[in-house]
Amino acid sequence: MCKIKNLIWVMSKLQVAVDRYPIWDDVIQIDTWKGAYGKIGICSNWTICDAKTSEILLTASCIWLMMNEETRRLSKFPDEVRSELDKHLTNVTLPVVARKWSPRDEMSIVDHVRNGIMPRWSDLDMNQHVNNVKYIGWILESVPHSIVENYELASLTLEYHQECKMESVVQSHTYVMVSNNGKIGDYDLVDCKHALQLETGGSEIMRGWSIWRPKQYGNRLGLE
């Protein structure tokens, strides 16, 4: 956290893509680096690969923006912050894809809702709002069991829109792309759209998208 001129870092977007989950006895290697993202942000990047074969298992990136803690407005980097960051930033960043759904998509979704989600003290970070990692668990609260039991998460994109505090009560929405009269079939991939909203007022805290693929139990256990 940066306390220069009341500035703090806030996560704006997170994107994860999983090609293959590690299995028993895998040795993995994690590489991470940071790149510039405009004048008010940086992009953190990660790759996880098999240390023996160099096969890439997972890629991830997130965008961090600088915000004034008092005004809650985004801010440009002060010169002293920029000069320090420039020593560590590279010109290579993983692409962060912006996803949008068309009005036609909205006609082909079914809404699954989980009400009454309330933060705990352990969910808060040092800025006294909910840690961004907790949102992933809240999203999964509204994903249908038929998806969680039969599919595995292949990719996830999250956009953070506003802070969530201790007194907030949250609704988790998962909108599943469906066909066959609203039933989830045996698809190779399942697309979901997610939203976390405040129960009072309905303002959106976070928006997300996920893609799920069928579980391969044998492969995940390292079996033939």
Automatic annotation (TrEMBL):
<keyword id="KW-0378">Hydrolase</keyword>
<feature type="domain" description="Acyl-ACP thioesterase N-terminal hotdog">
    <location>
        <begin position="5"/>
        <end position="84"/>
    </location>
</feature>
<dbReference type="InterPro" id="IPR049427">
    <property type="entry name" value="Acyl-ACP_TE_C"/>
</dbReference>
<dbReference type="InterPro" id="IPR045023">
    <property type="entry name" value="FATA/B"/>
</dbReference>
<feature type="domain" description="Acyl-ACP thioesterase-like C-terminal">
    <location>
        <begin position="113"/>
        <end position="213"/>
    </location>
</feature>
<keyword id="KW-0809">Transit peptide</keyword>
<dbReference type="GO" id="GO:0016297">
    <property type="term" value="F:fatty acyl-[ACP] hydrolase activity"/>
</dbReference>
<comment type="similarity">
    <text>Belongs to the acyl-ACP thioesterase family.</text>
</comment>
<keyword id="KW-0275">Fatty acid biosynthesis</keyword>
<keyword id="KW-0150">Chloroplast</keyword>
<keyword id="KW-0276">Fatty acid metabolism</keyword>
<keyword id="KW-0934">Plastid</keyword>
<dbReference type="Pfam" id="PF01643">
    <property type="entry name" value="Acyl-ACP_TE"/>
</dbReference>
<dbReference type="GO" id="GO:0000036">
    <property type="term" value="F:acyl carrier activity"/>
</dbReference>
<dbReference type="InterPro" id="IPR029069">
    <property type="entry name" value="HotDog_dom_sf"/>
</dbReference>
<dbReference type="Pfam" id="PF20791">
    <property type="entry name" value="Acyl-ACP_TE_C"/>
</dbReference>
<dbReference type="GO" id="GO:0009507">
    <property type="term" value="C:chloroplast"/>
</dbReference>
<keyword id="KW-0444">Lipid biosynthesis</keyword>
<keyword id="KW-0443">Lipid metabolism</keyword>
<dbReference type="InterPro" id="IPR002864">
    <property type="entry name" value="Acyl-ACP_thioesterase_NHD"/>
</dbReference>
<comment type="function">
    <text>Plays an essential role in chain termination during de novo fatty acid synthesis.</text>
</comment>
<protein>
    <recommendedName>
        <fullName>Acyl-[acyl-carrier-protein] hydrolase</fullName>
        <ecNumber>3.1.2.-</ecNumber>
    </recommendedName>
</protein>
